[in-house]
Amino acid sequence: MFKIEEDSQKLGQTAAVIIARQLIKKPNSVIALPTGVTPIPMYNAFVELMKYGIVPVEDAHFFNLDEYVGLTKNDPMSFAYYMDKHFLSKIGVIKHEIPLTNAKDPEKEAQNYEGKIKALGGFDLCFLGIGIDGHIGFNEPGTPFSSITHVAKLQPSTIKRNSKEFGKEVPNLAITVGIKTIMHSHHIVLMATGTEKSDILNKTLFGEVTTSVPASVLQLHPNLTILVDKECAKGITTTNARSFR
Ligand code: F6R
Q1: Which segments of the chain does DSSP mark as H helices, in order?
Q2: Are 14 and 227 in contact (CB under 8 A)?
Q3: How are the residues of the chain apportioned to helix, strand and coil, as percentages rounded to the nearest 5?
Q4: 114 lines ligand 1 (CB under 6 A)
Q5: Which residues contact residue 167 at a Cβ distance below 8 angstroms, ignoring those fewer than 6 apart?
Q6: Is residue 131 in contact with ligand 1, taking CB distance under 6 Å?
Q7: How far is 188 from 170, CA to CA, in rounded Å?
Q8: Is 13 helix (H, G, I), strand (E, B) or coil?
Q9: DSSP strand pairing (61-64 vs 96-97)
Q10: Mutation to probe ligand 1, out of 38, 63, 81, 162 (largest number of atoms < 8 A from CB)
Q11: If residue 226 lies in a helix (H) or strand (E), which one and from where to where?
Q12: What is the dihedral of CA 95, 22, 39, 57, to 10 degrees?
């Protein structure tokens, strides 16, 4: 399914409704979540939906897609900090997993993380943002499609963009859920907002399936929902050329 929303706020509401429906259908769902600018309206909208007291979160398992390697615990640059600020502290989620940023052995931490996802049968629902280089999670161009959770080296463009908010450089290593793990999700929701994402969305959805554009693998997913705002959609030239169900 390809849906164009009026703006990033409306997109966030639609995404929050997708989480709510999933949890009402299956309260112990395993749900993968991204950080970044794009999903903030989704977290805000979900917090609002929770106020109606109808969406069960007690049995849900939330997993973050990625986390930096080499920060101290509670560093404001960490994704753990971000998740607490935007989501966890507001809804009181009990079951939440995120790779340790200060793990002694990051490779082992990545393996453990994959093990935790596998033990629960994989993701029922996986939300993704997309980097301007086509990364999903922190799977940068060139990452094998067969990758599972691993330690990844970030591209300079990703470091630059993610550092903007902090005035200092974010780490160049991260633990990320792999592409294969993402692709095994039952349902994937890809979110993109703003004109800066149009170009990569065109390549992702209508270009060649190639590891040079990691997100292009999503063309192979049987249950993909794409949510874009009008700004992003303006630059997508070939939306009618293919249909996504
Ligand atoms: C972050 C993540 C990344 C972001 C991507 C887009 O957890 O998985 O793939 O989704 O870098 O980031 P924003 O939304 O800030 O443009």
Answers
A1: 8-25, 40-50, 79-83, 89-91, 106-119, 156-163, 179-183, 198-206, 230-234
A2: yes
A3: 40, 20, 45
A4: no
A5: none
A6: yes
A7: 27
A8: helix
A9: parallel
A10: 38
A11: strand 224-229
A12: -30
Q: Show me where the domains of the chain are located.
A: 2-242
Distance from Cα 23 to the centre of ligand 1, integer Å: 23
What are residue 44's phi and psi, to 5 degrees? -60, -45
Write the DSSP symbol of residue 220: G
128 CA: nearest ligand 1 atom: 10
**Residue with the nearest Cα to atom 11 of ligand 1?**
131
Q: Whose CA is nearest to atom 9 of ligand 1?
A: 137
Q: Is 161 in the pocket of ligand 1 (CB under 6 A)?
A: no
Tally Cβ neighbours within 10 Å of residue 54.
10
Q: pLDDT of 71-121, one tens digit each? A: 987 899 999 999 999 999 999 878 999 999 999 999 999 999 999 999 999
Note the CATH architecture for domain 2-242.
Answer: 3-Layer(aba) Sandwich (3.40)
Task: Ligand 1, residue 38: give the atom nearest the CA.
Answer: 14
With 0.90 as the threshold, say if the pTM is over it: yes
Residue 94 confidence (pLDDT): 84
